[in-house]
Amino acid sequence: MSTTIGSFIAGGIAACGAVTVTHSFETVKIRLQLQGELQAKRDAPRLYRGVLHGVSVIYKNEGMRGLLRGLNCAYIYQIMLNGCRLGFYDPIRTHLNSLYLTRSLSAHTDPHIQQHQSVPINIISGASSGILGAFAGSPFFLVKTRLQSYSPFLPVGTQHKYKGASDGLSQIYKTEGTKGLYRGVFPAMVRTAFGSSVQLPTYFLAKRRLVNWFGMEDGTPLHLLSSTCSGFVVCVFMHPPDTVMARMYNQTGNLYSGAFDCLYRTVKTEGILAVYKGFFAHLARILPHTILTLTLAEQTNRLMRRFEDRVLPDRVKGGI
Ligand SMILES: *[C@@H]1O[C@H](CO)[C@@H](O)[C@H](O)[C@H]1NC(C)=O
Hints:
Blueprint: H1 2-34, H2 51-67, H3 71-100, H4 110-115, H5 119-149, H6 165-181, H7 185-214, H8 220-250, H9 259-270, H10 279-311, H11 314-319
Helix pairs in contact: 1-2, 1-3, 1-10, 3-5, 5-6, 5-7, 7-8, 8-10
Bound molecules: 2-acetamido-2-deoxy-beta-D-glucopyranose.
């Protein structure tokens, strides 16, 4: 129990730290994704011309405050996501293990089922707990997106005048009810599902390839490089649903009837590459995040293993 609380707090602090450092890129990303929505390329305004231009223009006009709009919502979202991942991962995994592995392991050895590690089941459990977190956190992500797209200088998207996170939530609830708070929840869940299910498999794949093809040895350089590959692939998969999500969050009326309508009309009017608007800004946010979390996870794993080797007698380890 105490280790769960410990890892919740440690994970929360790490995630919020990473979010603070990369939030400016997230702000630029959202404005790039909304810029020129449903407009042909030649008619589309180019207020923000890329990651660095975006950051500098926002900083010049709106200061640090402009770049960090919605940061508190980002914190709440991260804590909820992290909490759901930690809270639901093991119960889901144990449940799936007992559903699918009872036949291959003898049915009444419960502890084995709990401790058995199956890669596909672990991935599904990770993705499902992430999806639950995305569902729980969607209203905060919604308000965050709207706060970040608000600009008194170079506005893109519907300009929602919220005084802050709680004002945003209560305004949405008052005018549109729960349905309004959960606008865009579907692409939000798809986005997290893509990200969570791709991250670890690509990480391990990259690691194996780097070892086999380039003879790299296990260690921090290998971890840094593999997590960079993983972050890149995560971004490639996550970005299209992320763009749809940003556009669903922006609308107040019923511009789109749903996520697929949004995807279809975006591609039809702006071309297929429109789903990758703001990709580099997203990459600037995701890469440090992925590198940090995966490299740290390797360190903690190694510490755990060393600890187990020293403390646990062989008899106990044999059972695991
Ligand atoms: C944002 O949503 C509004 C509807 O609420 C829509 O008119 C507008 O085109 C959308 N996108 C942008 C970039 O303003």
